Amino acid sequence: MKDHLIKATVYDGMVRAYTIVSTETVEEARRRHDTWATATAALGRTITITAMMGALLKDDQSLTVKIEGGGPLGAMIADANASGEVRGYVLNPHVDFDLNTNGKLDVSRAVGTDGALSIVKDLGLKDYFTGQVPIVSGEVSEDFTYYFAHSEQIPSAVGAGVLVNPDHTVLAAGGFIVQVMPGADEDLITQLEEQIQNFEPISSLIQKGYSPEQILFKLFPDVHVKIHESMPIEFKCKCSKERLELAIKGLGNEEIEKMIDEDHGAEAKCHFCNEVYHFDENELKTLIE
Ligand code: ZN
Predict the structure, then answer these.
(1) What is the number of structural domains in the chain?
(2) What is the whole-number distance in angstroms between the Cα of residue 80 and the centre of ligand 1?
(3) Among 89-93, 119-123, 168-172, 221-225, which stretch is predicted with the lowest mean pLDDT?
């Protein structure tokens, strides 16, 4: 099953629900950045939720998420757009700990609990929205839940999970965002909270082969779920040799001449996807102004 995301509403539009299976996307991130298991779970959860937040945007809007919790991972950065393209990286990918007392990957220990979750949305026409909240748990999903409540004032439940194989590849990844629209009554909110609290871990559902549609129907078993859209999700980076040429140009002629004389070429790496671009002496010469 290809990674995809479902946009739906329930309770006559009073509740918005997005579900996603992101196993291949998270595996692509793991493969590119060589993340170890705990780092894979942390980055995977972040990428999964960022992809859903991208899908909440319109047209050519995009967003960037930064999580810096003071833990061994360092900063985690992810960005996504409304077309299902997401990418991300973590400063220190080689982080792995023993499972926590719940038998799960100890994401909170890797992320840390002393720092901030920041989000910048590029809404087009030079219009930006920025929001920042303190890290409350380091488990990522809870931190996004807190972000929605305090920065966007939208009562939300956010879940994301990643299961890792013994060989460190990604077995299952996915998540959901459930948001209550203004005007919904308190009973509905309480009922949803209970429903979601008792919900089976999302990663184990995906491991069993659940699709985003099936996850939705399991989240809301007794009500009519209106599906609005299904969209593919993939790890995709915006980098190109041309963009890195500009970055090298920005270093200045003196620096470029040094690369030519001393190194006879240059390598430039994209942080987001770890792709390496090579520039030979002749290519570097064309960058001198
Ligand atoms: Zn890239």
Answers:
(1) 2
(2) 13
(3) 221-225
Which CATH number characterizes residue 268's domain? 3.90.1280.10
Q: Identify whether residues 226 and 254 lie together within a single domain.
A: no
Q: What is the dihedral of CA 102, 103, 104, 107, to 10 degrees?
A: 70
- Do 224 and 255 lie in one domain? The reply is no
User: Tens digit of pLDDT for each residue in 125-142?
Assistant: 889 999 999 999 999 999
Gap from CA of 190 to ligand 1 centroid (Å) = 43
Gap from CA of 61 to ligand 1 centroid (Å): 19
**Same-domain pairing of 135 and 260:** no
Residues around ligand 1, an ion, CB closer than 5 A: 237, 239, 270, 272-273, 275
What's the pLDDT band for 186 if we cut at 50, 70, 90? Answer: confident
CATH number for the domain that contains residue 9: 3.55.30.10
What's the average model confidence in pLDDT over 193-209? 92
Considering the domain architecture, whether residues 19 and 129 belong to the same structural domain is answered as yes
* pTM assigned to the model: 0.93
* Domain around 245: 241-285
Going from the Cα of 235 to the center of ligand 1, the distance in angstroms, rounded, reads 10
Whether 141 and 274 share a structural domain? no
Q: How far is the CA of 88 from the centre of ligand 1 (A)?
A: 9
Compute, in angstroms, the gap from residue 31 CA to the centroid of ligand 1.
Answer: 14
Do 252 and 226 fall into the same domain?
A: no
Q: What digits encode the pLDDT tens for the residues 17-67?
A: 999 999 999 999 999 999 999 999 999 999 999 999 999 999 999 999 999
